[in-house]
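Q: I have two molecules that I believe assemble together. Could you output structure tokens for the complex as a whole instead of separate predictions?
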Amino acid sequence: MEVMQGGTGSASPAIEARGVTVAYERARHKDTLVALQDFDLEIRSGEFVTVVGPSGCGKSTFLNVVAGLVPPARGEVFVEGKPVRGPGPERSVVFQDYALMPWRTVEGNVRFGLEMQRRVDRSTRERIARYIEMVGLTGFERAYPRELSGGMRQRVGLARALVTEPRILLMDEPLAAVDAMTRELMQDELSRIVAETGQAVLFITHSVDEAITLADRIAVVTNRPGRIKEIIPVPFQRPRGRDVRNLPDYIALRDRIWSLLEAERHTNRSQVEAGV
Amino acid sequence: MSATTTREAETTRSRPPAPVRPRTFSRRQKIVITVVNLALFCVAWELVARLSGVPSLLVPTFSAVVGEFFAMRQEGILWANLWISLQIYLVGMALSILAAIPFGLLVGGIKILDRIVGPYVWALYTLPRLILMPLILLWVGINDTARVLLVVLSAGPAIIVVIMDAMKTIEPSLVRAARSFCAGRRQVFTHVALPSTVPYIATAVRMGVSRGLIGLFIGELFTAADGIGYVMVLAGRQFNSARVYFILLVFVAFSVALVGLTQWLEKKASIWRSA
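A: Yes, here they are, computed for all two components at once.
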């Protein structure tokens, strides 16, 4: 049911990361920071995978590698079987800080990706309207980002990502800057929208509840340098409402992820921060 | 002091609470304040000049200064010279803006160019333009070109400097977003860098406008045989202080008008910015 844009038809997974290692040079500290080390992850087409981990564990870095914005030092990421050499139209990114163009209206921002990919044609206007409606912003087409709340801005970010009709959605803590109540509501909506559009989703978060509410599988990441600690399947049907949170299975799952993360908190950071 | 405060406190308690209103003046209030302010200034000037006993060579009366408007018109030296100065200024500013904006965008946008060319621009920007006078006289002689060149050398670097800086304030997250949608270098420039510098371009023009005016005046002081600045120098040599003051007022009025215009443009250009 999820896989509606199955047009790719290939057996290769949407995203396949093999041994991805990323290191940043820190000029100020005169050292190299290993953000990710030998990171492996596979996301099937139409699958929703959330990545949780302690802050600074490199989970956002991983998303940037998949997006083609950061080149890995070692290892490789394959998107639909092809190695990533840069951004591509089959992927769209939703950013934590929204990254909307402040001089563009809602409509103009949603249009942005299509313009960059030179895909503006006669159907564009209608298509933009459709996605603006999907994220619930009809009536705000002419508003500027500064006139919108955080939640509404991220709706624009989501519409901008969806309008190019990507097969893979990369979401970098998209709801982290949104207030708590809006966040819950937007999780539900996101569930519904993605179930409708059928993308494979890589979703970075530091909220355990958000991870369980949204995902087919949850990847728990270790402290820096980030590595997969465990991958946990979520046994509930998707899209799912918040009511699953009362189920005993949910509570058990939540406890398990928490204890995994808690164990990470107590690992010795100095040992982890050793150079390359 | 304390008595009035308690009385005020009592009256506020008995009345319904006044809504919090931001302290801003309405458009009409602003106009009234400006007019009254200017009128008071003129009256004060007239009174001080008449009653203080300061020689009129130092402070002529305001009425004498205004009288120069008619005197100069009668002599036929008002409009012609104003027109010449205005032409030189406009040509100089047009050249400055046309050359400095692309130059600033280019130098500010390309790191290596900024490293190499930046210091020269800053040097020219901080250099007093008066120092360039002898050089300019050597290069082009005493003519209109010299004056235009002075305007350009005054306004140009100021515009470039602001735009160079603006190119460094571009939000990296916006560039990243554009890149994530497969934008190339060119698209990042036209769709992210350029729009985010538009408000700064307006600021740059505003900076250039006032500095260009200084350049114009210096030019007319040293290299001209006509123009309103030249008339001012002549009047000074003839101890016609009322005329000197009158031309000074013309300069002030002109620059205030220009800065007002460019401020308005700046506001229009940055309408999407948060207040």
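A: One point stands out. The CA atoms of residues 147 and 159 of chain B lie 18 Å apart.
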